[in-house]
Amino acid sequence: MSYFDLHAKHTIIGGTVFSALPNIGSDQFVTTFIMAVFGAMVSFMASLVLKKVYQIIQIRLKRKTKKETP
Predict the structure, then answer these.
(1) Percent of the chain surpassing pLDDT 90
(2) Does residue 38 carry a pLDDT above 80?
(3) DSSP 8-class letter at 1
(4) Contact call for residues 24 and 32 (beta carbons, < 8 A)
(5) Cβ atoms < 10 Å from Cβ of 36
(6) Helices H, strands E: what count in the chain?
(7) CA 8 to CA 48: how far, in whole Å?
(8) Residue 67: predicted pLDDT
(9) I need a labelling partner for 34 at 20 to 30 A (CA). Which of 12, 44, 58, 65 fits?
(10) Angle 6-18-15 (CA atoms, 0-180°, nearest 5)?
């Protein structure tokens, strides 16, 4: 990624964030922050559960293929 692309990306993100801040009240900001933290935690937990389910499926498939081979 070139310097110009990186600079443009940061400029767009910064402009969006700073233009939205004055329009958000403090109570909405706190609510948004709490919802973002909660969403991140739920997403992380879901990824852990799906990773574990995937590992279990892989183990069962390996056992099944070992039993079928003579």
Answers:
(1) 37
(2) yes
(3) -
(4) yes
(5) 10
(6) 2, 0
(7) 34
(8) 72
(9) 12
(10) 35
DSSP sequence for 8-34: HHHHHHHHHHHHHGGGS-HHHHHHHHH
Confirm if 52 and 45 have CB atoms less than 8 A apart. no
Measured CA to CA in angstroms, residue 14 lies from 1, 19, 55, 64 at distances of 19, 8, 40, 53
Q: Measure CA 6 to chain center.
A: 21
**Choice between 51 and 61, residue whose per-residue pLDDT is larger:** 51
Please name the residues in contact with 32: beta carbons below 8 A apart, sequence gap of 6 or more. 24
- Cβ–Cβ < 8 Å for 69, 61: no
Boundaries of every domain in the chain: 3-68
Residue type, 42: V
The residue type found at 65 is T
